[in-house]
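Anyone up for a design puzzle?
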């Protein structure tokens, strides 16, 4: 890990174990243990403009489909965002995300799929005397390329202590 909240550059790689805890039939789990890595980088370009980058990969040996077929699946993701700091507690942002991943078709057989979205949005913070910070936000994902025509609305909220 490199950098902190005061640095112009930060890098915080991670390696995670994926647990088969969701419902495969609803598309909320791989149905098997897996591993995932992400390499996030943040760069302060200007006191009011910050750029975040992320590249990652996922591998799930013995992944399961909703039909209970199994195969090894892989995937990779790329993400980039720009954050305009209008006020320390109010930001405009735009995020671009592209994914390429495999889905299980039949025993031992997979198919590659791709998605891509651009999401403009806004977030703001509530700071409490206790040190609690709540950061709600809203974004509007717009499908591009392989996801062209898809649209949505996402609400987020992050809590932390300052």
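Challenge accepted. My sequence:
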């Amino acid at each position: 890990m490199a950098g902190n909240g005061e640095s112009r550059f930060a890098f915080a790689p991670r390696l995670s174990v994926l647990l088969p805890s969701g419902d495969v039939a609803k598309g909320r789990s791989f149905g098997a243990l897996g591993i995932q890595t992400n390499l996030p980088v943040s760069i302060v370009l200007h006191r009011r403009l910050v750029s975040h980058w992320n590249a990652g990969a996922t591998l799930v040996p013995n992944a399961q489909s909703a039909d209970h077929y199994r195969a090894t699946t892989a995937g990779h993701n790329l993400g980039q965002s720009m954050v305009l700091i209008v006020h320390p507690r109010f930001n405009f942002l735009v995020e671009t995300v592209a994914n390429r991943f495999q889905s299980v078709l039949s025993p031992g057989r997979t198919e590659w799929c791709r998605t891509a979205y651009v999401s403009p949005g806004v977030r703001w913070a509530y700071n409490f005397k206790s040190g609690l910070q709540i950061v709600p936000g809203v974004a509007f994902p717009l499908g591009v390329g392989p996801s062209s025509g898809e649209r949505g609305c996402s609400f987020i909220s992050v809590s932390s202590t300052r």
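A detail worth pointing out: The chain has a mean pLDDT of 92.
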